[in-house]
Amino acid sequence: MKYGLPLVAVIGLILVAWLGSMIPGMQYFFGVAIPYLAVLVFLGGFVYRVVQWGKSPVPFSIQTTCGQGKSLDFVKHDRLESPHTTTEVVARMALEVLTFRSLFRNTKSELYDGPKITYESSKWLWLFALLFHYSFLIIVIRHMRLFLNPVPEFIVWLDWADSMFEIGNPALYLTDAGLLIGLIYLFSRRFTNRQVRYISLSSDYFPLLLLIAIGVTGVLMRMFLRGGIDIAAIKQLGVGLVTFSPVITADIGSIFYIHLFLVCALLVYFPFSKLMHLGGVFLSPTRNMRNDSRQVRHINPWNPDIKVHAYSAYEDEFRDFMVESEIPVEKEPEPKEEPAEAPA
Amino acid sequence: MYNKGLIVSGLVIFVLLVTFPIWFNGLDAGPLPKPELPPNGTKECVAPVAEMRAKHMQLLNEWRDDVIRNSNREKIVVAGVEYGKGLQLACMECHSNKEKFCDSCHEYAAVQPTCWECHITPTEAAKKEAQ
Fold it and tell me: Is residue A36 part of a domain?
């Protein structure tokens, strides 16, 4: 069920786009309306999620550290593992965002008879995650050739470098292979590793399957199912979309609409799923806070605004009642001028 | 909102990056490719237009493999017309102007075919002869 449902969902999306795009007139629905809607939902949802996170108070100073915090001068401070200044936080964050440092620490635990448990460094997750993410980034940048007119030299160069081995025709992009290899590893990891399989949910399998489907349809469209893949017409649609004058001038093959629809599904799904780690990695209090709680007091924004009411003020307020009830007071009330007793 | 300045500027950068193609093009779709029709007036090609548009690069590679790797120079006949297997033997006989035909779409879509690493265009050939 955990992986069956996502599989059915992805197949369903493919069928919707495949059958739908063959209905005359529906090309504009799948090629224009859906992409606009998807980008709007993506941007709106992304901003909404980040603003919601920004509004959430951080009650405690909860940075995660795994090194010596700043202390006395003769104690060696681990600046990356226990950042004390904003610069050190930025450095640690940059390494995390750009090189996935926390995945580099991934360990594999195995249980032996005894019972005995062992932990062993396991870099595969880090390696394939890096492969997948950077391939995906380059693929997204490369796709800009279909949206920008004229195409900047940088993207032409990237396109050349990515297909430099000229495998097949049109040449296979290395990042396409990297993306699929990375995804297949990330997917099979959830099947073969018992512990990870136990904690995997539909929402873990769905984005992986969706991305695999996007990658496979992309490669199929480029290298194998070329029928009706008129790049000039596709680019005309792409540039049309971003200049708000979209036109579909040719009978573009169904595989294009399937690919596009799956990407739109990914964009719509993105802000409401675990994929938001794109924005979330920057807003993790455990990573973006300085470990300076010994120098700077962290104020919990949830603290109610309590006005100071000192004992002296309290006594001032209730002195008369206290005296009346014979409770000792620090400051005796000023003797009232008693009316002179009537002469006897 | 906490850390408002940082979060809002981060979001603004993100939105600007995602919508980059809109700013780059400036709402101007730019010139469309207009591949020149054969100057000699030929109307028929080795395959229908749609198929040529989508698959000409694969056809050219098949021809190359046939001629160079399998030394099969047999001409192909389509609708009674004979075509030699080759960029210059067949394609450029009609589409004689590389700059106006091939380049128009290739530049638009930022495609860099490797044909011209070995072949020379008729314009270049004419220049060399003149020298």
Answer: yes
Q: With an 8 Å Cβ cutoff, is A104 touching chain B?
A: no
Q: Is A14 on the interface with B (CB under 8 A)?
A: no
| Touching A: B residues 72-101, CB under 8 Å | none
List, as one string, the DSSP characters of B64-125.
Answer: HIIIIIS-----EEETTEEE-SSIIIIIHHHS--TTTTHHHHHHHTT---SGGGT---HHHH
A119 and A14, same domain (yes or no): yes
Residue with more model confidence, A340 or A79 = A79
Identify whether residues A143 and A245 lie together within a single domain: yes
Which chain B residue's Cα is nearest to A227? B54
**Same domain as A97, residue A211:** yes
Q: Is A150 on the interface with B (CB under 8 A)?
A: yes
Looking at chain A, the whole-number percentage of residues with pLDDT higher than 70 is 97
Share of chain B above pLDDT 90, in %: 24
pLDDT at B12: 96
Distances (CA, A) of B58 to A67, A69, A262, B103: 57, 62, 27, 17
Q: What's the predicted TM-score (pTM) here? A: 0.88
Asked if A169 lies within 8 A of B58 by C-beta distance, the reply is yes
Q: Do A154 and A205 have their domain in common?
A: yes
Q: Where are chain B's structural domains?
A: 37-117
Contacts of B28 in chain A (CB under 8 A): 243
* Closest-CA residue to A206 (of A257, A268, A260): A268
Instruction: Report the number of distinct structural domains present in chain A.
Output: 2
Q: What's A198's domain CATH number?
A: 1.20.950.20
Indicate yes or no: CB of A149 within 8 angstroms of CB of B27. Answer: no
* Residue B41's pLDDT band (cuts 50, 70, 90): confident
Q: Give the model's pLDDT for residue A338.
A: 63
